[in-house]
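Why does this matter for the project? Reviewers at the last site visit asked to see concrete outputs rather than summary tables. In response, this paragraph embeds two records directly. Each consists of the residue sequence and, immediately after it, the corresponding structure tokens. Nothing has been edited or filtered.
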Amino acid sequence: MRDLKIPDQRHPEKAHRPDNAQPKKPDWIRVKAPTSKGYMDTHKIMREHKLVTVCEEAGCPNAGECWSQGHATMMIMGEICTRGCTFCNVATGRPDELDVFEPGRVADAVQKLGLKHVVITSVDRDDLEDGGAEHFAMTIRAVRKRSPETTIEILTPDFLKCDPSALETVVEAKPDVFNHNLETVPGLYQEVRPGARYFHSLRLLQRVKELDPTMFTKSGIMVGLGEKRPEVLQVMDDMRAADIDFMTIGQYLQPTPKHHRVAEFITPDEFKSYEKAAINKGFLMVSATPLTRSSYHAGDDFARLRANRLAKLGQA
């Protein structure tokens, strides 16, 4: 995996204070370096198709496991983001023009990898009038045409500065799962996700359900940023009020000393407690472990999500 570099244009508020050193990383979130043949084969396909993956750009700890199984989360619309979230290792700056051939290359890679389920995400593109909505739709359609049996999960930006029609464009392309992460509790947004708005993100997901009640919706947060348990439970309630089907909760890991510090490492037992609370609140699916990420085991989770909906309908 190539080194992840922090560009000079990152925001100064990401500066790390030496007196706020993060706690020692516990054994339960340590992962082995990727060395398998499957990992190298996936890496080769990504490079051959000139594709960016969030696995690399965000420094995901699960990259070795996922890539060894031929799974990778495609990141479209470049590798430069117009936002400057303090938790994220993706570069901030002025993005390049959209590559009109990218949707086709994504579709080719999905077919070559033989994916049964693909996750497609992107950087924020506030420089585009539609936030990249049509590019998302083109990519979904290209994958659907080339691999009609593959289920498609998208992890989108918030389209904060766009006309409402941007969201409609994406939903009309019919992804199987629409994911948009809230990332953290509202009280930490100014510090952690300053370019976003908590209730806008909630409303985005609620609107997806209004546009297509059959579409699965998904959202996730990180813990260990300094939030309190009652705040996490309130986020769960807010998500359910927006009719979100699937919630993910994972441990925040500080990518570099320039990023938001880790306030604490949440124990596996605490994650189990969060999972139980979320299930009791009515989510169809919950993934809550230290290494949980939005696309981690996404294919298996989608199969369970679909089965859980059918079971729930059968009980109605």
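We now turn to the second protein, recorded in exactly the same manner.
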Amino acid sequence: MSEKPWDGRFAEKTDKLVEAFTSSIQVDKQLYAYDIEGSIAHCRMLAKTGIISGQEADTLIQGLDAVKAEIEAGKFRYDDSLEDIHMHIESRLGEIVGNVAKKLHTARSRNDQVALDIRLYLRAETRAIIKSLSDLRKAIVNLAENHTDVVLPGYTHLQRAQPVLLAHHLMAYYEMFSRDQARFEDCLKRINVMPLGSAALAGTTYPIDRHYTAQLLDFPNVSANSMDSVADRDFAIEFLSAASLCMVHFSRLSDEMILWSSSEFAFIEISDAFTTGSSIMPQKKNPDVCELVRGKTGRVFGSLIALLTLMKSLPMTYNRDMQEDKEPVFDAVNTLKSCIAVYTEMLPNIAIRKETMRQAAEKGFLNATDLADYLASKGMPFREAHGCSGRAVAFALSQNKEIHDLELWELKKFSDMIEADIFDFLTTEQMISRRTSFGGTALENVKQAIEQARKELKTQ
């Protein structure tokens, strides 16, 4: 199995150390199905254009199907001397069908072959990720819809700021993951371009029909420049960029789940099925799934940086450096898919501690802005009202009270505009129900957002 496709030029055999160093088979062997799919389409195109006969094409296709069956049955033998999945398949094909196997590589190069394989792989995986993100968004909408009556503090700077509906908070993540899904859908347009037929870099002298090959492989577009076709990994970088942004959102959500499940917050309880314990402290229930998702974010970032660094200074066209493109892409795909899957299963099993959240929303002067708004609605300039409310907060702090716990006469110290209706104005329910601006946390807004999300998800 050690014969090289370039043996005619070389007087010495490749050193075994070099064979091991340059081999990528342990990484790229997972592309076997895409490589065979592309080879079958290429074979059919060669027959259609008369470059090989129909009988030769049938023989090659039967042989390729046999190779695929061997790989899937675990009977296929790998050897570093054959470097990559392309040469493994071609070599075994020759053992099965004989000399006609040498015709399969007519009018193509491993350069455009691997470009095709990784596009086929990323197309399939991106479609799967889009579907799984849709399932995740459904899980978020379901959780929001089941808890539209739950109030919690909204935070800025990790300090309690204003009360919001939990459903509103959750729907913020729906928006984030919706953008992620849209990015992958847009990225798919650049992935879904057929490069085969560009050969090594300059195209080919054979009368091939690249558009027919694209049709067989369900590509809507064919790459326009043979040099760019084999040198381009923008689509993979774009995928990794979208994956990195998606992991940012998972990391932020994970951090909130970790905080909210702590004794200090006690807003939620994560199901036992998605937590672990301590080897020494029997009382511990650790949010390890969330922590691991947060940690895995760095792996996906690393994949993006690795590929950007790999490509940043490569001259045209293909360079062997590009063999290193697959491992970061494969790792990012697997990491992201696992994070989506675990969150889609975990979210419906989270217990919401409604009363704890509400109690937190009623402490910490979360109605201070509303006091300023109340005064502004009476005609006081907002900046003046802001200062007035701030003095009321300082006084309440000195009395160890909340603003709404102060007596009317105490509040009137800060402005004669304050009347008895202030106490109803400062309730949590009123604060939430008044925030009716588009995108605000008012219940009707949130219900409309959930309804709109349901419509969006039905179309996917």
